[in-house]
User: What shape does this take?
Amino acid sequence: MVKIAKGKYKEWLTSEKLDIVAGWAQDGLTNNDIAYNIGINPDTLYTWIKKYPEFSEVLKVNKEVADRRVENALYKSAIGFTYEEETVTNQGEVVTVKKYSKPNTTAQIFWLKNRKQEWSDRQEIEHTGTVVFANEDSIPD
Assistant: This one.
């Protein structure tokens, strides 16, 4: 059984500390990274997740935020997008330039393979026929 760091969990159930955990989850830190930052063993973190619903919910909701950001970035990369960039001219002036990032075919393939069955690398093989079981007495020498 995992020993919970006595009293430490109470400190991390305050709104201020839960906000810190939320930030780490939104930044994409893994549970192991979060446990390290708190100063506990990952097993202890998993115990806290099971035992304290408010802790579990903060992680779940904020990890979803991070996942959505990545999904949106992947989608933008797949379809292409415009963005603005500051650059310095030959005269030393800082100007804003509008640029276009063309669609990324690798992102498109990844997106389609994970969302469309006909693009998937997974192959389903259907086996037909029968299986015959034989005991040792029926097998010729």
